[in-house]
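quick q for whoever's on today - can somebody do inverse folding on this one?? i tried earlier but teh output was garbage lol. tokens:
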């Protein structure tokens, strides 16, 4: 049902890609350990069911996602795709016909945030983690923004303090901008800080938005 609703949205003039882009964006990559050759490409609506399975696999691991397994519903996946179609970007990593990673980032609705990508998620299948796939997804998205989207000044990430990916984000160019104490409540009831981070598009002068 949710795929039909997405297709209805697309019939109103949207591209069948999750975000509008006149140039092709498909690339071949090899994992950091040299064991896995995979494809990074733009997400399409037909990825919806595979995307749900990917999210469920990651959510089944403690700390994998903010959402739990039972919160990865058809409605949630539809919401992600609709928001990406209307106001964002989405890429997937694919290995042997299976989605093994994704990055989805989109803007908040108020126009005052039109230069910021803030909502969304970055995730990699547990069986394919620690291979550099998440890093490649992020770098590909940032390169796309830097080269083709001068309207985007900031890309934001919020990660729980215990997330080891924070060091990866810093290596890629994200900077910590503070901490939200007690924002995350784990399944064990313990509270944990969230760490807001941002990457600034080096090809955009902040004064453009003054």
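ok took a stab at it. sequence:
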């Amino acid at each position: 049902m949710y795929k039909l609703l997405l297709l209805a949205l697309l019939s109103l003039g949207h591209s069948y890609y999750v975000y509008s882009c006149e140039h092709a964006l498909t690339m071949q990559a090899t994992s950091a350990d040299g064991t896995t050759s995979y494809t990074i490409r733009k997400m399409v609506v037909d990825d919806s069911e595979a995307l749900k399975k990917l999210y469920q696999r990651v959510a089944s691991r403690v700390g994998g996602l903010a959402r739990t397994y039972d919160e990865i519903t058809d409605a949630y996946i539809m919401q992600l795709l609709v928001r990406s179609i209307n106001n964002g970007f989405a890429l997937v990593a694919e290995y042997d016909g299976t989605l093994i990673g994704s990055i989805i980032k989109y803007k908040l609705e108020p126009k005052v945030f039109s230069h910021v990508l803030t909502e969304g998620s970055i995730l990699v299948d547990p069986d394919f983690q620690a291979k550099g796939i998440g890093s490649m997804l992020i770098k590909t998205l940032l390169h796309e923004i830097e080269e083709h989207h001068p309207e985007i000044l900031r890309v934001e990430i919020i990660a729980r303090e215990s997330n080891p990916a924070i060091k990866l984000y810093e290596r890629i160019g994200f900077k910590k901008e503070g901490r939200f104490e007690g924002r995350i409540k784990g399944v064990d009831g313990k509270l944990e800080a969230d760490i807001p981070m941002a990457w600034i598009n080096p090809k955009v002068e902040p004064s453009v938005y003054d």
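fwiw The domain at 2-209 is CATH 3.40.630.30 (Aminopeptidase). also The longest strand covers residues 191-200. so keep that in mind when u check it
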